[in-house]
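fwd from M.: "can u put these together and see what the complex looks like"

so here's what she sent:
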Amino acid sequence: MDKTIIAHDPDEMEEIGIEIASDLEDGDLVSIVGPLGSGKTTLTKGIAKGLLITDVVVSPTYLLAREYRGRLSLHHIDAYRISTLAEFAEVGLDLYLPPEEGVTVVEWPERIDGLIEISDFLIRIDLLEGGPRRVDITKKGLRR
Ligand SMILES: Nc1ncnc2c1ncn2[C@@H]1O[C@H](COP(=O)(O)OP(=O)(O)OP(=O)(O)O)[C@@H](O)[C@H]1O
Ligand SMILES: [Mg+2]
């Protein structure tokens, strides 16, 4: 399902997330790469909606991780302030990378060595001139 979609506003960004969610399976790891403020959390909100999660999804930046229950549970991790898998192990979050159950979505995955390589989906967001975002979705399917 490799594809590129242009999102002109946050609603379109969420729609992309909803579409991605329909393709997610138990145990999937999703990496979202993109510059500061590009829409990683917004896309994750769409993924949560697609997984029939009714809780409000907020940025996990200061808590490192948040968990929600839906069709599959969603583990939402922000690696902005963490740089190694060992640091995640120290706080007990390494079992979500990849997840033993449910789906993990990681913002700033490039901060953790080897994480993008083991991801099932790689999503890359780029800022376009004037505000819209280009979203590149790559399904890697390494572990299926
Ligand atoms: N496609 C889009 N077009 C225009 N604005 C958008 C789009 N997607 C998201 N935004 C807006 O950009 C801002 C930042 O979004 P968001 O918090 O999702 O980014 P982020 O990549 O998670 O940021 P951070 O790097 O701080 O984690 C929000 O105001 C959001 O509504
Ligand atoms: Mg964010």
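replying to her w this: Strands lie at 3-7, 29-33, 65-68, 74-78, 103-107, 121-127, 133-139.
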